[in-house]
Specification:
Layout: H1 2-28, H2 53-66, H3 73-98, H4 107-127, E1 134-136, E2 143-145, H5 150-168, H6 174-194, H7 199-226, H8 235-252, H9 259-262, H10 264-283, H11 293-298, H12 303-325
Antiparallel strand pairs: 1-2
Helix pairs in contact: 1-2, 1-7, 2-3, 2-7, 2-8, 3-4, 3-7, 3-8, 4-5, 5-8, 5-10, 6-7, 6-8, 6-12
Length: 326
């Protein structure tokens, strides 16, 4: 745990140092965000450098290599998922910028790429003696065996988590700040549940928790540039990378069902989009002024207040969850 906190500080420092250079580089390449024409309040943000997620991806990989340790298979695959999902997001962002549009990869192209990564990790997890087909029930030490069904479950889980995190990235600092809270809370709970185990599994989970704190360091530094008013956006490069890391954290710790609790901000964001689309197709009427839900609130409140509200909600739910686990 101490190593994880030290790694957090190191990653924070590295991300803080490289951020100005990467932002300057993105500006030089004219990698500016194209704003959707119907998001009126964001017109002034057009041209703000995007693909800023490369900051915490690079700093996290560098820091991880510095703190490389034994029994770190979970941590290593988690870092790999961060990178691979980040690469998918990078291509998505690059296409948007290259062709000066807000649509990057086609939806089916995104899903196919995400599906490929998820399938590989699902098979790896199922065949691992340390993960297998078991799922922790929230607030208990009980495990449920899903058998071979864990493979499609993991695949769907990755797609759901990655795209939910992607959807919440709509306001300055919203995704990065909420994710920091979710990662810290999740890491604490996962460590608590791992105390009932010993041997290699405990070491793997401890290293996974440490690398989660390590990642938080990069995100903390990024928020200094991504908070309102944002000097850089993380883009799909960053949001998909965060989603990939987050999904892996829950999969390898077998705490899949913890995600919709501590990550309820992502859940309500995804649900709001589904409701808006379904109701509009049936009735041609909108339930929300805009979807996802944070844009609905933004029509009434300043986006900084909306972000603050989401973060506070995540903290409160996180603390209550930790109390129930202790």
């Amino acid at each position: 745990m101490k190593e994880g906190l030290l790694a957090l500080v190191v990653n924070f420092a590295i991300a803080l140092i490289i951020s100005p250079f990467i932002i300057k580089w993105l500006r030089k390449l004219k990698f500016g965000q194209n704003i959707l024409i119907y998001v009126e309040k964001h017109k002034e943000k057009s041209g703000t450098p995007t693909m800023g997620g490369v900051v915490f991806i690079i700093s996290t990989v560098i820091t991880y290599l510095i703190f490389w340790n034994k029994n770190n298979l979970f941590a290593t695959v988690t870092i790999m998922s961060l990178v691979f999902f980040g690469v998918v997001g990078f291509f998505d962002d690059f296409i948007k910028i290259k062709f000066k549009q807000n649509e990057g990869l086609k939806p089916y192209q995104k899903i196919i790429a995400q599906l490929g990564i998820a399938i590989v990790i699902a098979i790896f997890s199922y065949r691992s003696s340390l993960v297998g087909s078991f799922v922790f029930l929230p607030f208990t030490n009980k495990l449920v065996d899903f058998g071979w069904l864990i493979i499609p479950f993991i695949i769907v889980f990755y797609l759901a988590v990655v795209n939910s995190v992607n959807l919440i990235d709509g306001l300055d600092g919203l995704c990065s700040k909420v994710s920091i809270v979710v990662f810290i809370v999740s890491a604490i709970i996962i460590y608590i549940t791992s105390l009932n185990f010993a041997g290699v599994y405990f070491e793997e989970i401890t290293n996974l928790v440490s690398v989660t704190f390590l990642f938080v360091g990069g995100l903390l530094a990024f928020t200094l540039y991504n908070g309102f008013p944002a000097k850089v956006f993380m883009g799909d490069t960053g949001s998909l990378a965060i989603g990939g890391f987050m999904a892996s954290l829950f999969v390898f710790s077998k705490n899949y069902l913890l995600m919709p609790i501590v990550g309820c901000a992502y859940l309500i964001t995804a649900i709001s989009v589904i409701i808006q689309v379904v109701v509009f197709k049936i009735t041609k009427k909108r339930v929300f002024k805009m979807a996802p839900l944070h844009h609905h609130f933004e029509q009434t409140y300043h986006e900084a207040k909306v972000t603050h509200g989401y973060v506070v909600m995540s903290i409160i739910i996180g603390l209550l969850t930790i109390i129930l686990y202790v």
